[in-house]
């Protein structure tokens, strides 16, 4: 076993502390490959750019304006499915299949509240995410500065979520709820995480992938009751989606346009680029931002804790989802994992130092025989 050096930032040694020389070199080779794959973001397709023309601002916010118009119509007494279908038809949006119409949860809740209250709730949710992650990271770092840096990275990943003009956007709320669910999860306290995860799924059904990953991790860890809890939450949301389907089918017309499908096959580079443009990394050139995403993903592997394993599993699952099924205009799917995506950078100093020490370890054991 390689020599174990005292941690730099972490309170406990990283997962790579004491690793042998050959495995360390293999891990470093894997990291190099991950960074190269991340750099494919440079040539990956880009999300639709925002127009520099102020007159085109409404066009850039078309999706948000659609959801805001639906909320306003429901607040005025309209039936959600009727007004949503009409709004999508008049806006040139597809109405088929049924998943092109969002679940009614967010629109109904926002229609029942004044807009300032909705914005206040959004800010409170953002603060709750930061506070929960501050608690989750307690004891992980040896000193307060690294812990605050990790918390700042949560903010860097979620900077887009405080924009009040996105308050009607479903992925904003679902992404914050997924981040909060991950932050409150513990081996011995999972009920809150399941309940918050169910709320995320009821707002945006693509959060179901998060619940699936959490259930599989619970099964793998021998936490049968937790796995049942996630299965129950998934079944409840499944019932809600089934009801949504039947309500949608009652208002659909043969002439309604169908969506283009979800088979983008844009690759891992597009996932990296989508994360780059929706987080604080958007201020960096793509050739710098892309490796940061790769290092952030790898960093989660360094924290020796079940919570890190779950975060890494969730990030990996959404990386596959976006790489295979996302289109350029649905890049916002990454918002479901954006708030937690960059926190892995806080674990990189210890990870790289431990791997470097192990990879260069040249100690040998020499056996000598003494003759008496």
Please write out the topology.
Elements: H1 21-39, H2 57-60, H3 62-75, H4 80-90, H5 105-111, H6 115-136, H7 144-157, H8 170-184, H9 191-203, H10 208-220, H11 224-249, H12 268-278, H13 286-302, H14 306-325, H15 338-341, H16 348-359
Helix pairs in contact: 1-13, 1-16, 3-4, 3-5, 6-8, 8-9, 9-11, 10-11, 10-14, 12-13, 12-14, 13-14
Overview of the structural elements:
- With 372 residues, the chain is an all-alpha fold.
- It has one domain.
- Helix content is 60%, strand content 0%.
- It has 16 helices and no strands.
- It has helices at 21-39, 57-60, 62-75, 80-90, 105-111, 115-136, 144-157, 170-184, 191-203, 208-220, 224-249, 268-278, 286-302, 306-325, 338-341, 348-359.
- Helix 3 runs antiparallel to helix 4.
- The protein is globular and about 75 Å long.
Q: Report strand %.
A: under 5%
Give the termini distance in whole angstroms.
Answer: 32 Å
What is the radius of gyration computed over CA atoms, rounded to a whole number of angstroms?
23 Å
Structural class computed from helices and strand pairing? mainly alpha
Query: Oligomerization state of this entry?
Result: single chain
- Biggest β-sheet strands, sense, barrel: none
Q: Give the overall shape.
A: globular
Approximately how much helix is present in the residues? 55-70%
Unreliable residue runs: 51-59
Q: Could you give the count of β-strands?
A: 0
Number of helices: 16
Number of domains: 1
**Order of secondary-structure elements:** HHHHHHHHHHHHHHHH
Mean pLDDT: 91
